[in-house]
Amino acid sequence: MRALGPGSVSSFLKIILDVVYYALWMLIGAAALFALVTLLFSFNPGLLASWLPFSERLAQIVARGPYFATALIAGAAYMGGVLAIVDILRRIFMTLTAGDPFHPENVRRLRLVGVIFGGLEIGRYLLAAILTLVMPGQIRSIEGTLNLTTWFAVLVIFVLAEVFREGARLRNEAELTI
Fold it and tell me: Are 31 and 80 in contact (CB under 8 A)?
C-alpha cells in the first residue's frame, strides 16, 4: 500500500482525522452546554429541586456547580487546543493525499502544532497550580508534574518541521534545475 496520494495510507488517516475533527466539535458543544446548564442550576437551585427531591446531597452538588462548570469550560478549552491540532493535521494530510508532502505551508503548520501542543502542556501546569490554590487537597486527577514525554514530542515536532523545511527547499531547487 502506498503512503502518499489518493487511496493511500495518508488518505485513510485524513478520513480518520476528519471524523475526530467533527467529533471534537460535538464534544466542545456538549461541554459548553453542560457548563451553561450547571451554572444555571447552581445559581437557581429551585429549577433542579422541581425535578428532583431536594436533599442534603443534592445541595452539596449544587454548591459545587461553579467548580463543575469551570472544569467543563477548562475541558472545552483543552479540547479546543486539540481541535486546532487536528485541523492543522488534516491540512497536512490533504497535501500528503495530493502527493505533495513538502508543501511549503507544512513547515509552518508543523511549527504551529508544536506551539499549540506545548501551550496545552503549560496550560495543564497552570490549571494544576490554580486548582491546588483554590481547592487544596481535593484535586488529585490533575498533576502539575513535568511530563518529559510531552516535551520530547514537542521537540520531535519542531525537528520534523525543520526536516519538512529542508525537503521543501530541496524540492524548490529541483524545480529550478533545467
Answer: no
Closest CA relative to residue 42, chosen from 55, 61, 23: 61
Buried b (16+ CB within 10 A) or exposed e, 110-134: bbebbebbbebbeebeebbeebeee
Cα gap 121→90, rounded to integer Å: 22
pTM for the full predicted model = 0.81
Task: Report CA Rg, the chain.
Answer: 22
Q: How far apart are CA 67 and CA 53, in angstroms?
A: 22
Each residue of 42-55: pLDDT tens digit?
Answer: 776 666 656 666 56
CB 176 within 8 A of CB 140: no
The contacts of residue 62 (CB under 8 Å, 6+ apart) are: 41, 42, 45, 48
Is-contact 83 29, C-beta < 8 A? no
Helix or strand (DSSP H, E) at 57: helix 56-63
Cell of 98: 495530493
pLDDT of residue 153: 95
